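job 3f2a | input accepted
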Amino acid sequence: HFDFIGIENHLNYIRRPESELTPREAIGLAVLLNSRLLDQYFRICSGNTQVSATEIRAIPLPSLDTLIQLGKAFEECAAREPETAIDILVWETIKPPAVMKKLLKRVIN
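job 3f2a | predicted structure (109 res):
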């Protein structure tokens, strides 16, 4: 237990207007945002690793149902290495178009 919390001043918050994200939605969003697929997509599009609020708003996110599915799948595969699980789950759930897969496979490998 701690009396204080420290937050970096460039922290971006992602929220749902007029409501709260469920834990499963938050986990699904975290899984997506921590995937190599989204990281490489972002680096290709922006040439940068620092993300502003404007750039976060421009990221094409999957449907809420897909985020929930990602969150549920991640919760169920706790036995795997988290980083590996994240990349596998996002790749299988998002199913990027063939052109994107080809480009990203070259960049990732």
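job 3f2a | The chain has a mean pLDDT of 80.
job 3f2a | closed
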